[in-house]
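Contributing: when you submit paired examples, paste them exactly as shown. First protein:
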Amino acid sequence: MTAPYVHESSYADEGVAIGEGTRIWHFCHIQSGASIGRGCSLGQNVYVGANAKIGDGVKIQNNVSVYEGVELENHVFCGPSCVFTNDLTPRAKYPKGSDGRKRTIVREGASIGANATIVCGVEIGAWAMIAAGAVVVKDVLAHELVMGVPATGGVGLSVRREAGRRLALPGMRKSVSATLQRAGARP
């Protein structure tokens, strides 16, 4: 692999660990204590908070904020403008600091769609899929597809790890299948 690349318009504070082959593009800020694995890609205007953990092969699209308390395991995909929160009851006048933060973990291979919001304190299971615009307020099972506000699902996905394989969606409810077809997905 090659040395990490950090665009000249981005800031990586002291005490940041960035793995080989990782590329950090325009206007990003990586705070002290954050760790980013090998072979990652961080698009324009990505913020990675202090002590956040990002595994190997993670793809983070433009305008994503990964706050302190968030951990993304290997090969997670974060679509454009998705956001993670880290405090259930934020107040400007009465800040709690790290005492109010809740841990959020996104397990290996999970995908988060554009503009999805992940409310803190949840676990997103391995190879789960979060639809664009969903608001996740509770744990998502491994291989589960969730969508909506609040995000609901219960649809199991047969996901293969190999790149380029179509997701098999056996036994889906008709309403979910119709929603995916309208969005251009092929079940």
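Second protein:
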Amino acid sequence: MLDFAHLNRYRENNRLEAKRAQGGLPHSLWETYSAFANTRGGLILLGVAEAPDHRFYSVPLPDPEALVQEFWRLVADPAVTNVNLLRPSDVNIRESEGNPIVVIHVPRAALRNKPVYIGTDPFTGTYRRSGEGDYRCTPQEVQTMLRARDAARRHLLREKREEPPCVSSP
């Protein structure tokens, strides 16, 4: 976990993204959610900005609890993203430099859940993380994820059919 007392030691990378979010949830949040889920997972920090030297610093968030509530509402909306990978413990509010920061831990999606995309079309809403950026996946990358997902789901179905029946003990 991050040391929020020393936020200025951190910079964006392939598993860490800062967003000011002072005007509400930014649309780019969902691109990062998709990118982290489709790559290695990561942390999204709302209420954090980048200085010109790329170091992080906190900014005042007017209502972090409302941001969290809005996030949970939208992440469950299939028009926003196709799958909610998060547990309640993945979203919390921390403090740095006297300011609240909303921390969202996005896990790496299991093959059976990929691609994780925004909107309703995987071919236009699937992202991947590279370095400190979120990039729209090519149709070929999306097809590869869809094939891997279908294979993982078939494998799970085969395993379920092959499970021995439950035997109760006397």
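If you have annotations for the second protein, write them as plain sentences, like these:
Residues 139-162 form the longest helix (24 residues).
The radius of gyration is 18 Å.
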